[in-house]
Amino acid sequence: MKKAILLVMLFCLLFTSFSFALDLNTTVNYLARQELDAWGILALYSNSSSIENQSLEEVNSSTIMTDYESYIMGAIPLGLDVSEYAVQIAAAQQENGKFADLIHTGGNYLVNSHIWGIISLYVSDHETYNKEQALAWLKSQQNKDGGFPVFSGLTVSDPDLTAMGIVAYHILGLDENSPEIQKALAFIEESLQKQESCETLSWYILAKEKMGLSIPESFYKKLLSYQLKDGSFKHLKESKNGSYIATWHALLALSDYQNEISIFDKLHNESKQRHEQKENEKNKI
Asked: Is residue 166 part of a domain?
């Protein structure tokens, strides 16, 4: 009798794993058919899917800080050298600690340019900036409800940006015991009860994976409930059509779960390894 029960349990485990992998494969196939930007490339890379034929346009002509930051997120998976962009981002940190809205001319309004400055320099292994000041500015932007606003000074918080802020907090040394992160997680969880979306669920999972925190299986099941037959994910439950943006969000989150490592740590480790290889090659000359 015990052997029969064990066999049934083993079958269920294998079947569950197979079904989960099959769901990700249909999503990978959907994304591979799209015209990809940096985020689509990153999502495929996170799932160890082929990105050999993908390319990214350089952003030298842009003045927008987030263009440089997002470029880094897609360029590292492609094996491109991002050191020039990383240097420019680090140099754009202002006296108040904030990474500027515009790459060469400053700006103190966009919270996301600061958060992604921290993240992009981490994943590129180029953390030559004042972390203490960067952390102080980030803390100053957190609202009383625990969330972060899109624009500095607003009292309305955004749950997706708040999850990104948690990733930045963790990079800067805060852990799950810090009141800032505890308040931010509570805000996202409350927001999900009021208005759930594929992107917010995905960012909640990505933030907790970066923190190394356990995530209830129910959250992955919720995320998979947004998936359509063609592999795409929809933005809201009531949506009828799949969304490219929702799909790459979901694939990133589900790949983190499957890989048991944060995509941000994976990129950081790869960048660090490349830098070490370059140093070793220099020393041989």
From this structure: yes
For the stretch 111-122, pLDDT in tens is 999 999 999 999
Q: Are residues 115 and 186 in the same domain?
A: no
The DSSP result for the chain, as a single string, is -HHHHHHHHHHHHHHHHHHHHHHHHHHHHHHHTS---HHHHHHHHHTT---TT------TT--BHHHHHHHHHHHTTTT---HHHHHHHHHTB-TTSPBPSBTTTB-S-BHHHHHHHHHHHHHTT---S-HHHHHHHHHHH--TTS-B-SBTT-S--BHHHHHHHHHHHHHTT--TTSHHHHHHHHHHHHHHHHS--HHHHHHHHHHHHHHT----HHHHHHHHTTB-TTS-B-SSTT--S-BHHHHHHHHHHHHHHHHTS-HHHHHHHHHHHHHHHHHHHHHH-
CATH number of the domain residue 230 falls in = 1.50.10.20
Q: What is the pLDDT of residues 170-221, one digit of tens each?
A: 999 999 999 999 999 999 999 999 999 999 999 999 999 999 999 988 899 9
Would 85 be classed as within a structural domain? yes
Q: What is the pTM of this model?
A: 0.91
Domain that holds residue 242: 142-265
